[in-house]
Amino acid sequence: MGAKCELCGRDMLESKGCAISNIHIGGKVYKRIPVGGSGDFLEGGPKDARCGDCGALFGHYHHWGCDCERCPACGLQLIGCECEDVYAQGKK
Ligand SMILES: [Zn+2]
Ligand SMILES: [Zn+2]
Ligand SMILES: [Zn+2]
Q1: List of residues 6+ apart from 20 with CB closer than 8 A
Q2: What pLDDT was estimated at residue 90?
Q3: Are 26 and 83 in contact (CB under 8 A)?
């Protein structure tokens, strides 16, 4: 049984990445930072990389709650940053 992303509902290891591209932080909408994107752990490649935590492929979005996703507002780890009102489609 695979783990499903609670945001997009896809199986984390069988999907290419998360289906949801925007998140709300402090009342503003931000585009999420994909695997390999600016500020991401795997910024710049390799292009066949896959997130070690949520399994998203290079160029795709991390699944919700991934340890490796960066906050597009402050650049820190999204699950540990100090930003308020972080949610996507009603999920915190
Ligand atoms: Zn997802
Ligand atoms: Zn990830
Ligand atoms: Zn933040």
Answers
A1: 7, 8, 32, 61, 64, 88, 89
A2: 65
A3: yes
Structure tokens, 31: 């585009």
Question: Would you call the peptide bond into 34 cis, given omega within 30 degrees of 0 as the criterion?
Answer: no
Number of neighbours of residue 3 by Cβ within 10 angstroms: 11
Q: Are 29 and 22 in contact (CB under 8 A)?
A: yes
Instruction: Say what the pTM is.
Output: 0.92
Cα of 74 to ligand 2 centre, how many Å? Answer: 17
Helix, strand or coil, per DSSP, at residue 80: helix
Ligand 1 centroid – CA 33 distance (Å):
13
